[in-house]
Design brief:
The complex is a heterodimer of chains A (253) and B (434).
Chain A (H helix, E strand, L loop, with lengths): L1 E5 L2 E3 L7 E2 L2 E2 L6 E3 L1 H15 L5 E8 L3 H11 L3 E6 L11 H15 L3 E5 L10 H9 L3 E11 L2 E8 L2 E7 L4 E5 L11 H7 L4 E5 L31 H11 L4
Parallel strand pairs in A: 1-6, 1-8, 6-7, 7-13, 8-12, 9-12
Antiparallel strand pairs in A: 2-5, 3-4, 9-10, 10-11
Helix pairs in contact in A: 2-5, 3-4
Chain B lengths: L2 H26 L10 H8 L12 H18 L3 H7 L4 H10 L17 H12 L3 H21 L2 H13 L2 E5 L15 E4 L4 E12 L4 E9 L9 E7 L5 E3 L13 E12 L3 E2 L5 H37 L1 E2 L2 E2 L4 H29 L5 H26 L1 H4 L5 H8 L9 H15 L2
Parallel strand pairs in B: 1-4
Antiparallel strand pairs in B: 2-3, 3-7, 4-5, 5-8, 6-7, 9-10
Classes of the chains: A alpha/beta (253), B alpha+beta (434).
Protein name (chain B): Short/branched chain specific acyl-CoA dehydrogenase, mitochondrial
Subunit structure (chain B): Homotetramer.
InterPro entries (chain B): Acyl-CoA_DH_CS, Acyl-CoA_Oxase/DH_mid-dom, Acyl-CoA_Oxase/DH_mid-dom_sf, AcylCo_DH-like_C, AcylCo_DH/oxidase_C, AcylCoA_DH/ox_N, AcylCoA_DH/ox_N_sf, AcylCoA_DH/oxidase_NM_dom_sf
């Protein structure tokens, strides 16, 4: 089984984002691998370690600095990397999921991937659309928000956590697209020797503009605003007045 | 030619050459500016200096620092207080240090190590120290002293025997100090008397030996020819399981309580010529050399402590309200932390520069001594200020500030006291003016 895993470079989850000139300010902001993509990498590497996968290829789309994100994935255990380079922003401002999914499609067709593992969403734009769109374009089965992935009878058994309980979905045969949820696994740290070894793993660089995909966004972002500052809370005298306020003022119970 | 046109020409030439430099720099260095930099950023670029700033990290260095930071925060932080209270190292932390590759940082991959640069190794020490200096000292001594001594001067057989173990499962101790020989290191009394053409017998007692409780191997400095004075000092790699070695109980210390510091007695311990590091009688030279660069690691530990203190106090200043506003709003407080940050920056620049000098094979001994001397003063000052600004809570064990305050003190003592650093600096300073 050949696995293609998508890794997105996003503003680090620990960074408090700043809005400037109608967009999220990316200058001198720490960026790192999207946490859900880390989970996808970890799952792919585990499938390789359990001999279910023969090769794991990491694909990242974005600026030059994506090579660092790819190196992290290689240090975690991916075999090689593909970097589709572009200076267009990937946080929905320029490149949007429809174009990203088409770029993925090109690579999937070229690589003849059997399984595409993606994060369930990027923490920058929170779209969660690339996986489903890619599956649609390829005409492949898909499972989103995977919380457990098991290889079974040439297909997959995937669990997803829903509001009403755990749903188990059988993917009868590959190829397929799976997007990964938070509790699928706990990603490993890249060890120091592996970070150094990752430098020697091959990374292919392509140009987004030369992939034969229309990169023009279909949706226009009208405005990006900081969340409104939180109003100061109030102290209540006792439990009764708390319940009274929740019931009558906030009307939440 | 008018003065003005000369200036203009020079300015143009400088812009051109720095553009060239930039083109090269961006291909090899991590560029933290976004590619869609605005015009003012581009202008800043054009007058960028010819050399990279000492505090600018390469891609390798920044990736390694980030991994160490993540490990220290997620893996180490939860057990720091427990280890300090119990005065012992959590065995899971030790195995994690090996698993992450922190114990064989500069050991080449063919010997099971990570193959990092000296600077990268120092950055790891700093990041671990930022969370727990007592774990940082274990990593620092193991990597910068023993591992490197074996890499530099060990025979092929010593390297093949010990480097893979040091990188994967065996802690080492550097055994130099004795009751009568601290700063006067080469007055050591431990002897290594030859009993045959291939065997020596070690006798003596070492004191204040870091990592001794966990160590599987000791790098022991002993005199093989006391009549020759310091020129008899010889270094031996001694397996901790060798008969005649007894490790005493750990000292109860002011700080670095999770790191073991024990006496070790060698009672007729048999070693062979194969266990000798390098040449007989050269131990003092190896010792001087390895401590010269080792103290850069200590400087990094001290910087880590100061940064760890700021990590605690800075958010607190903005949260803590007194007299109706955050205490960060008081100029008195602002100036105090501004001064602390300035001194920390000076220490950081000195230390990173010492790393870079060493890596560039340039003279670094004076700068390393200065970095260690100054960083240990700064860490103490920043830790003390941190507690004062935190007020009552800073004095309690609820926060790690009081631990940093205790942990930093040894920075002006070990791997050469502050007075010994001053002596080295003065000696080299006068040599410059000869």
């Amino acid at each position: 089984m050949k696995i293609l895993v998508g890794i997105k470079r996003v503003v680090d989850y620990a960074v408090k984002v700043r809005v400037s000139k109608g967009t999220v300010d990316l200058a001198n902001v720490k960026q790192s691998m999207n946490p859900f993509c880390e989970i996808a990498v970890e799952e792919a590497v585990r499938l390789k370690e359990s001999k279910n996968a023969s090769e794991v290829v990491a694909l990242s789309i974005g600026p030059k600095q994506c090579t660092e994100t790819i190196r992290t994935a290689l240090a975690m255990g991916c075999d090689r990397g593909i970097h589709i380079q572009t200076d267009l922003r990937t946080d929905y401002m320029d490149l949007q999921p429809f174009a990203i999914a088409q770029l993925f499609q090109k690579i999937v067709e070229k690589e003849k991937s059997d399984l595409v593992l993606l994060g369930k969403q990027g923490i920058d734009s929170d779209c969660g659309q690339t996986g489903p769109m890619l599956a649609g374009m390829m005409g492949w089965p898909q499972v989103t928000f995977a919380a457990k992935v098991e290889v079974k009878d040439g297909g997959l058994l995937v669990e997803r956590e829903t509001d009403s309980g755990t749903e188990t979905i059988q993917v009868k045969s590959l190829p397929a697209v799976v997007t990964c949820d938070l509790r699928l696994n706990e990603p490993r740290y890249a060890t120091l020797p592996n970070i150094m070894k990752a430098k020697k793993k091959p990374v292919e660089t392509l140009k987004a503009e030369e992939m034969g995909v229309d990169l023009v966004p279909h949706n226009q972002v009208l405005e990006i605003l900081e969340p409104p500052p939180r109003k100061e809370g109030i102290m209540v005298e006792n439990v009764d007045s708390l319940i009274d306020k929740l019931r009558n003022e906030a009307q939440v119970i | 030619m008018t003065f003005q046109s000369v200036v203009l020409k020079a300015a143009r030439a400088r812009c051109f050459s720095s553009h060239l430099q930039l083109a090269r720099a961006t291909s090899s260095c991590r560029c933290s500016l976004s590619t869609s930099a605005s015009d003012d950023l581009a202008t800043r670029h054009a007058v960028a200096p010819l050399h990279a700033p000492v505090t600018a990290l390469t891609e390798d260095e920044s990736m390694i620092r980030d991994v160490a930071r993540q490990w220290a925060n997620d893996g180490l932080r939860p057990v720091v207080r427990k280890m300090d209270r119990e005065g012992s190292l959590d065995p899971d932390i030790l195995s994690s240090l090996f698993a992450q590759g922190f114990m064989g940082m500069e050991i080449p991959p063919e010997h099971g190590g990570s193959g990092l640069s000296f600077t990268s190794a120092c950055l790891v020490v700093e990041e671990i120290s930022r969370v727990d200096p007592s774990v940082a000292i274990l990593v620092d001594i193991h990597n910068t002293l023993t591992n490197n001594a074996i890499r530099f001067w060990g025979s092929e057989s010593l390297r093949n025997t010990w480097l893979p173990r040091l990188a994967t499962d065996t802690v080492s101790s550097f055994c130099l100090s004795e009751a009568e020989s601290g700063s006067d290191a080469f007055a050591l009394k431990t002897t290594a008397i030859p009993t045959s053409s291939s065997e020596y017998v070690l006798n003596g007692t070492k004191l204040w030996i870091s990592n001794a409780a966990q160590a599987g191997v000791f790098l022991v400095f002993a005199n093989a020819n006391p009549a020759a004075g310091y020129k008899g000092i010889t270094a031996f790699m001694v397996d901790a399981k060798t008969e005649g070695i007894s490790v005493g109980p750990p000292e109860s210390k002011l700080g670095l309580r999770a790191s073991s510091t024990c006496p070790i007695t060698f009672d007729d311990v048999k070693v062979t010529t194969d266990d000798i590091l390098g040449q007989v009688g050269m131990g003092y030279k190896y010792c001087i050399n390895i401590l010269n660069e080792g103290r850069i690691g200590i400087a990094c530990q001290q910087i880590g402590i100061a940064k760890g203190c700021l990590d605690i106090v800075m958010p607190y200043l903005k949260e803590r309200q007194q007299f109706g506003r955050a205490i960060a709003d008081f100029q008195g407080v602002q100036f105090q932390v501004a001064m602390a940050a300035t001194e920390l920056h000076a220490a950081e620049v000195m230390t990173y520069n010492a790393c870079r000098l060493k890596e560039a094979n340039l003279p670094f001994v004076k700068e390393a001594s200065m970095a260690k001397l100054y960083s240990s003063k700064v860490s103490e000052k920043v830790a003390s200020l941190t507690i004062e600004l935190l007020g009552g809570i800073g004095f309690t064990q609820d926060l790690l500030a009081e631990k940093f305050y205790r942990d930093c003190k040894v920075g002006s003592i070990y791997e050469g006291t502050s007075n010994m650093q001053l002596q080295t600096i003065a000696k080299l300073l006068f040599a410059d003016f000869k």
